[in-house]
Amino acid sequence: MKSELAEMPMVDQRTARDETGKPERMPHELVPHLRETAILLDIDGTLLELMPTPREVWVPPGLSETLTLLTERTSGALAMVSGRSLNDIDLIFAPDLFRAVAGHGAEMRLSVGNEADAVHAPPMDKELKRRLAAVAKLSPGILLEDKGYSLALHYRLAPQAEQAIYEAVSLIRADLPNAPIEVLPGKFVCEIKHSGFTKATGVRELMKHEPFRGRRPIFIGDDVTDETVFAIMPDMNGLSFSVGRRAVGVDGHFDAPSDVRAFLARLLDDTRLE
Hints:
Layout: H1 2-7, H2 27-30, E1 37-41, H3 63-73, E2 78-81, H4 86-93, E3 99-102, E4 107-109, E5 118-119, H5 126-133, E6 143-146, E7 150-154, H6 162-175, E8 181-186, E9 189-194, H7 199-206, E10 216-221, H8 227-232, E11 239-243, E12 252-254, H9 257-269
Parallel strand pairs: 1-2, 1-10, 2-3, 10-11, 11-12
Antiparallel strand pairs: 3-4, 4-5, 6-7, 7-9, 8-9
Helix pairs in contact: 3-9
């Protein structure tokens, strides 16, 4: 067991302790049999490293094979849970297709053969979208991403514009106090979407359907938008793990996406989980 723990690509063991001071159990030790498990994965900052622009992310060698084999071992109970649209997710992992909760819960695909099984969000008002899009003109380097049901302002290339972006968005919201919108802060991104749906509402719906129903969910995420899912995992007897930071209430955490990928690959080699 000591040699196995030494190989785990996790946080420094000197800091891997719970609130009582006892060493934390490693994620690998917590996972039930894969036939009883649903694997739910955020993408950016969790499975894949963050890049200067959303279009620059790439899938490292071996990851697609790992995800495909885990899908088979769990009888299909593996899904992406992302702020990206289904179309974006498919472009990233092409030619592979995965079940997904997309657009922060705005879209869902329950079976691999379908484009989308459910769309929970109406398109954002065109005038509102126009006003929000104008915020991108505050500084060179702010990238606008229109998802139809939401709009994202990426500022990784213009980090100095963060405060100005949020102030401008706040002014627009003040002008439209009754607009059913919500602002999601993320890692160098400000996303504005319809209120009433989140990654958590999407996961709750996903877990009502086969092949996820009755399984124990394991969710791995990294960002503020993933906290809604961290919060509901205890209700489902699930497990949650954060990436890059030790989020409140999670069962453990990984230092980086490369550690998450190594963890997922290791699940395939563990005969205890077959």
